[in-house]
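Researcher: Sequence recovery benchmark, item below. Answer with residues only.
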């Protein structure tokens, strides 16, 4: 770390996960990109040497299948995706030094090199497996190229690995009536030879590696340790051709599995950047070169990054990652982001639908206000987004900025007066700088935002307490001191927040006629003309944010309606039904009804009356003390003038009469049923 002058700048290579070329950039990708970008921008601001590398992950069956469906070549599909991805990231000011592609010559060379080294170290073995083969298309069929009937729910037209209706996962050989996705013919089973990496030979190394201080967060280290304890399986790295990817040297028609060459894209993209910038890739990736390799990833891909990737690197004598920052998933207004459920919000959609010119930066700020270096899921809540932005950026920092600069314009002839600042505030800023630098180092962005908010509040309180609007009439020098102090405080805040909201800070930079580096937080300004005062933040209105969230809501409702049309309800819909175990404490026949009984039940400590149509099956006296399942959150109804607050579950017996559903053994009254 070198925030105070960068005498010995550190060297960093920083990456975020490579987005898959078969889809749009969505807000989940952006959460990670923002987290990474803030880390990178902080270190650049502090004078460290940082290279920020990313690329599209372009290989594999889904890409091939998508291209096939659209009638284009995979190369065309990935070229379009890359252009779209670059545009979307740029819209949120993600400052990659390079955004490359895994479908490059550099990547092919490195994939072959890594493979040859694994082979040299006797880590590669071969095994024959049974796989579907289409005699008509003359090819082995990957899981996604086989369709058939789901072995579980019997839905037709499901893929060979997963049912999109019931989410069951299975082997392609379990599919009922499989056929080839391309020609529709029935495939046959054939033997195919595949290549495997024997990870178990590397167990000692992996144990030592994941225990190096700082490499993994505690939650992730424990997670990875469980896999090691369970024993590592052989990892299949080959796929049968045709496959969109790199051919494996020395094989007839085998290709590297996409997860083999995807992380290697980190190295090949670095090499491309080095070539374009007169640098050498060894500076970053040679063993013990001193550069810190920092990966930002989501918790869903920790398996690949903490097990396969270090094994690939160490066997080729490459630099090992210094640290993984692993984040959780992004939910939107409490719902999991899911394409099929329509809760997905794409980056492009946000950029187009939210018209406020600072909207992308507001999302950066909001994400930062939620991010800590752990894998907890994060909820994007539209109301909270609105409140955080307006409270901290507009009403706190924006207000301090506005009142200070307008005052200087009016009373000090558009300049910062020539007096000294309040030393006590300058000292607070010096101390805060060290604290905030530590937060950025550890990617504790939530703490950065909270600290900056506190400094804004401190400034506003200082301004309010000093009453410069009164001082200007009685003590001009004192009024000038308040202004000089506030201007320097705003400058410090603009420095501190620059990695998160670079454009907002640029407004302050333009006014002061300077470009900040980290050390510019130090109080230094007096006796200086001011540029044009730009408004720092325009508050965001609910109506401006609404379209993007409303669209997601509509899509979600449509998805639910679609499910219901097909006889499905979502898990969430099911979870809304609250069921508990109840004990029947009294039962009576209902007058004028042959079917109904009036029951009093005890659900835990609560008592309720339920009218139930079970009189044909049970004499009332047989029911006392019986445990039954009750739906407790039904809207109460009136039956034969009696209130019924719930429903007792019963099955239809062989004779058509109801049979009560009871727990298989005695449980606590009030126990939840799910
Ligand atoms: Zn199914
Ligand atoms: Zn076929």
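Model:
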């Amino acid at each position: 770390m070198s925030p105070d002058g960068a005498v010995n700048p550190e060297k960093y290579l920083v990456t975020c996960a490579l987005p898959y070329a078969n889809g749009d950039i969505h807000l989940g990708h952006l959460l990670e990109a923002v987290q990474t970008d803030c880390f990178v921008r902080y270190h650049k601001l502090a004078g460290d040497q940082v290279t920020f590398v990313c690329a599209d992950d372009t290989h594999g069956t889904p890409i091939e299948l998508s291209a096939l469906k659209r009638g284009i070549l995979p190369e065309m599909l990935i070229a379009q995706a890359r252009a779209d991805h670059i545009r979307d990231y740029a819209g949120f000011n993600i400052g990659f030094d390079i955004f490359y592609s895994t479908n490059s010559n550099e990547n092919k060379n490195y994939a072959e090199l890594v493979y040859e080294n694994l082979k040299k170290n006797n880590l590669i073995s071969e095994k024959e497996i049974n796989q579907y083969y289409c005699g008509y298309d003359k090819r082995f069929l990957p899981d996604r190229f086989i369709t058939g009937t789901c072995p579980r729910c019997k839905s037709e037209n499901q893929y060979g690995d997963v049912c999109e209706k019931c989410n069951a996962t299975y082997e392609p050989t379990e599919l009922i009536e499989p056929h080839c996705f391309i020609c529709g013919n029935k495939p046959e089973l054939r033997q195919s030879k595949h290549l495997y990496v024997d990870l178990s030979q590397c167990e000692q190394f992996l144990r030592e590696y994941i225990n190096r201080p700082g490499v993994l967060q505690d939650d992730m280290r424990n997670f990875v340790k469980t896999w090691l304890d369970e024993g590592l399986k052989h990892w299949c790295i080959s796929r049968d051709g045709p496959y969109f990817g790199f051919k494996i040297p020395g094989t007839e028609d085998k290709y590297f599995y996409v997860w083999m060459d995807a992380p290697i894209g980190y190295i090949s993209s670095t090499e491309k950047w080095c070539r374009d910038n007169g640098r050498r890739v060894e500076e970053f990736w040679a063993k013990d070169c001193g550069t810190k390799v920092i990966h930002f990833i989501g918790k869903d891909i920790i398996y690949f990054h903490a097990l396969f990737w270090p094994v690939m690197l160490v066997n080729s004598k490459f630099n090992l990652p210094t640290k993984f920052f692993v984040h959780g998933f992004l939910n939107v207004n409490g719902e999991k982001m899911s394409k099929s459920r329509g809760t997905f919000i794409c980056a492009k959609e946000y950029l187009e639908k939210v018209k406020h010119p600072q909207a992308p930066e507001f999302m950066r700020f909001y994400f930062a206000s939620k991010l800590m270096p752990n894998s907890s899921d994060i909820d994007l809540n539209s109301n909270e987004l609105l409140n955080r932005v307006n409270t901290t950026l507009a009403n706190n920092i924006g207000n301090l900025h506005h009142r200070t600069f307008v005052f200087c314009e009016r009373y000090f002839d558009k300049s910062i007066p020539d007096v000294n600042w309040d030393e006590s505030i300058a000292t607070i800023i010096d101390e805060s700088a060290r604290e905030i630098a530590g937060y950025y180092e550890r990617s504790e962005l939530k703490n950065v935002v909270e600290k900056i908010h506190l400094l804004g509040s401190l400034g506003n309180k200082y301004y309010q307490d000093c009453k410069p609007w009164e001082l200007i009439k009685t003590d001009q020098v004192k009024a000038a001191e308040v202004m000089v102090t506030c201007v320097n405080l705003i400058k410090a805040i603009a420095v501190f927040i620059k990695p998160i909201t670079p454009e907002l800070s640029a407004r302050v930079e333009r006014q002061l006629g300077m470009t900040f580096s980290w050390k510019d937080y130090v109080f230094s300004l007096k006796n200086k003309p001011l540029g044009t005062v730009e408004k720092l933040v325009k508050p965001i209105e609910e109506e401006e944010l609404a379209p993007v969230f409303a669209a997601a809501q509509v899509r979600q409702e449509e998805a639910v309606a679609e499910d219901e049309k097909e006889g499905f309800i979502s898990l969430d819909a099911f979870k809304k039904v609250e069921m508990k175990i109840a004990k029947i404490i009294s039962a009576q026949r209902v007058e004028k009804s042959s079917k109904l009984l009036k029951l009093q039940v005890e659900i835990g400590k609560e008592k309720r009356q339920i009218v139930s149509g079970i009189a044909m099956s049970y004499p009332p006296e047989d029911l006392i003390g019986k445990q039954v399942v009750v739906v407790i959150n039904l809207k109460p109804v009136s039956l034969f003038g009696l209130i019924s607050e719930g429903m007792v579950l019963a099955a239809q017996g062989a004779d058509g009469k109801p049979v009560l559903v009871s727990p298989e053994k005695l449980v606590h009254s009030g126990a939840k049923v799910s």
